[in-house]
Amino acid sequence: MKGRSIVLLFVVVYWACEPISERKQPVPSLYQLSQMDLNLDGEKLAELYCGNCHLMPDPSILDKKTWEESVLPDMRMRMGLYLEEDIGITLPKDRGVPPGIYSDIPLIQKDNWEKLRDYYLSHAPDFPLPQNEKVAPEMGISGFEEIIPAFDFVYPDLTTMIHVDSSSRIWLGHRSKKLFHLDVSEKPTLLDSLNTGIAPVSLSLRGSSFEVLSMGLMDPSNDSLGNVVRFDPKEGEWKTEIIQEKLMRPVHVSWGDLNGDGLQDRVIAQFGNHLGKLSVFFGGEGEKEELVLKALPGARKTELVDWDGDGDLDIIGMMTQAAEGIFLWENQGEGRFFERTLLEFQPAFGSSDFQLVDMNEDGKLDLILVNGDNADQSQILKNYHGVRIFKNLGNNEFEESWFYPMYGASGVEVADFDQDGDLDIVAISFFPDKRQMPKEDLIYFENKGENQFKPYLPSIQFDTNYLILSKGDVDADGDLDILVGSFDFNDLYKGPSEKWQPIIILRNNILN
User: Fold this and answer.
1) Which positions of the chain have pLDDT values less than 50?
2) Considering the entire predicted model, what is its pTM?
3) I want to staple 409 with a disulfide (CB 3.0 to 4.6 A). Which of 132, 133, 372, 492 is the partner?
4) Does residue 328 share a domain with residue 266?
């Protein structure tokens, strides 16, 4: 046993001294590390301990206070090390945290923890770092008219989904277990109202029928109340059938035929909280059987595309919550998928949304990504939040080719909105800097060519929170309009007092 410990210690020292890009040995487990007498400095300890779960974060990503009072204490307790300063705090199990998230035994020795902690506190900035210099957005988006339709009744503005159908009508999900069918082409009109689970977030239309994914709970939770429900019109009413249930706070579903049997399969991102997963449910007789692709919380979104050109659909997915990144699940046939990492991010990166499009017309799909989730342990302004283009170099390699800082960036859409032959970008922020004037919670980026984009803000600043971003031709004039879903916290906590205004429309008048 002693000989094994000596060998393992040699591996640890060798691993810690090698550059990250050149390491071949796997990282020793936290338990193995806790049993060794490690003679390493704080930085090397951080590489070992942080690298067990995610990319090692640089101290500069957060200010000293946030490290000291929030992130580092939580990390320490997750590793099972409790100190005198923790007396009187609510233990994880008393907060409803599932077993296994916080260790029952210490996985780091106290002296090693102190060196790791001191490394972060001595290298962190006193205050959050400012954004890099950027082109200031101009007011007013040429060719667009800002409209906020008001319906003739009072109801809370708590939009959770927007889907524009082929008839230019809008399907709108609402936190309060509702799905609305709307027509805003002239006078705002409510066409239909259906009861659903809490917070509908995805919809797929199939002729006169459709399926809806509902979260079950919007607030952080480990409960499994989400579901997929099919709606069929029968004798003037909607008949419902539960297709999937007991989902862990699902936030997105992709529909497509993954196994070539002619049936629609579902890839469901079960974001969860402390627990979560990314799952495939194949259509047909076994459609309630689950294939788990990744058993971690934070699954945010997927796209189905034949990535490797072999004739079947592969899965590109975004994972958030610590082990952040963009991943490829390569379809191997017969219900098997091989996981590859395309991009990895540090745990406070805040990945929120992405689109797959060919930005430079080289025949390869690039990644347009926004990061700005700011609702966890470090709720400060982050200079690395914003909008990015990752150029596809081929062979599953990407490089960042463009970045625009945008605090709290949370949603992105890409299209040739101005119909000049290239792709423009629009992004929203759910966590903007409220002190910025004018607010930068919606920015339109006009593509000027050669990877240059000119930013614009709406000429009207709306007093609400932007949760949802979508696109579609709502006035049937042949161009794409931009739709933003309003989520008003005053309506949530105090109740509504004004007419219902659930969406903001940037109406595209480029063809008028």
Assistant:
1) 1-23
2) 0.93
3) 372
4) yes
